[in-house]
């Protein structure tokens, strides 16, 4: 299938429900409050819509967070509707049309010993389906975003196939255990930061303030050996060239300040469909100074890629069924959007620095999409997948979609890996959490896709 054309124009952003006060982003001349993710819609090839997003999850680590996991309940997978059948018996005569009792009906004789009624056996619970094992294959590029110390993370790490982990849990013992379990895994940390007012930001001063805030973690000898890179702003949104210039100067300066200390920066970390403007990629050139600084100081670019109701939606493999395949020529407007950015902008300008998808997955906050309107994380799409031929068992169906994305990442040498959101999520994001059966299926896949 041919690649989709680049959308010619995007409309103004719509504003979904505000999930929390920590989701504030300032735009333009005034100050507006945005949700963690907002989306723009436009036209591609005269019909396809462009969905864009920004400002998403954040969680604030303590000054010295504990490595002890706090159990969090996981949302139950959707199961087929059904109820127990009750054995209702009515000891009343059947009355015919003429008013006489029918021959087959009788009232019970009170002198008779009633025949015991056998209690129906409870329904046999539906067993959890056994997933068909994935066959062996080349090393995976899948990683995990984890927000707290969770034992199942170490089951995944033990496969030696987890490429990258992003985390807000900065406990040094947790970081050390990750590297001890899987030395090849890249570990990226993030401290909690409020969204910046890019319209008024002094980029140099803001960069120095960020570095001062980060150094107690990044330059701590208990943590420094284990963290491979650090994120700053999470899903920043630049509304115009001036704001993008300020963001680029901020990222370039903090990359330089940290790089002189031998600490790597992961720049950008733009939300799904970002950055954008009147034309979908017009703001990227204003970000080049940050990319040039990252290139000089061995930095990485971070992006978020989500779609829904499947991870294939708005790619050139959309509507091709459960196993659509993937080729190096395929692209998309939500997932696989990174290929447009690298092919049209970064590679021609010599700026194809290593890329990490610091978050990825299925996210129902995409607007103007098919599927259940109130769905958020992948767990909310399980019934839709069953009804539309994407797999009867939700956990397995989701991992299949992530495996498809993994194959795409393997086709691009500049991609380090991509972090599934998430494992051990906070309570407001439980429908995104892969803890439990989904992680078990992922573990089996990783176990046969580890480096030799």
Could you explain how this protein is built, in words?
This protein is an alpha/beta fold. The chain has a domain at 139-447: Glycosidases (TIM Barrel, Alpha-Beta Barrel), CATH 3.20.20. The chain is 23% helix and 11% strand. The protein has nine helices and eight strands. It has helices spanning 151-157, 172-181, 203-218, 241-259, 288-296, 337-346, 382-387, 394-410, 437-447, and strands spanning 142-146, 164-167, 186-190, 229-231, 265-270, 300-307, 355-362, 415-423. It has an eight-stranded parallel barrel with strand order 1-2-3-4-5-6-7-8, surrounded by four helices. Strand 3 (186-190), helix 3 (203-218) and strand 4 form a beta-alpha-beta unit. The longest helix is centred in the middle third of the chain and has 19 residues, at 241-259. The radius of gyration is 26 Å and the shape is globular. 46% of the residues are buried.
Tell me what the CATH architecture of the domain at 139-447 is.
Alpha-Beta Barrel
Structural class, please?
A: alpha/beta
Distance between the termini: 34 Å
User: Order of strands in the sheet with the most strands?
Assistant: 1-2-3-4-5-6-7-8
CATH class value of the domain at 139-447: Alpha Beta
Helix content: 10-25%
CATH topology of the domain at 139-447: TIM Barrel
Any idea what the shape is? globular
Uncertain segments of ≥5 residues (pLDDT<50)? 1-117
Strand content: 5-15%
CATH-defined superfamily of the domain at 139-447: Glycosidases
Rg computed from alpha carbons, rounded to a whole number of angstroms: 26 Å
For the sheet with most strands, the description reads: 8 strands, parallel, barrel
Number of strands: 8
- H/E element sequence: EHEHEHEHEHEHEHHEH
Q: Quote the average pLDDT.
A: 79
Tally of helical runs: 9
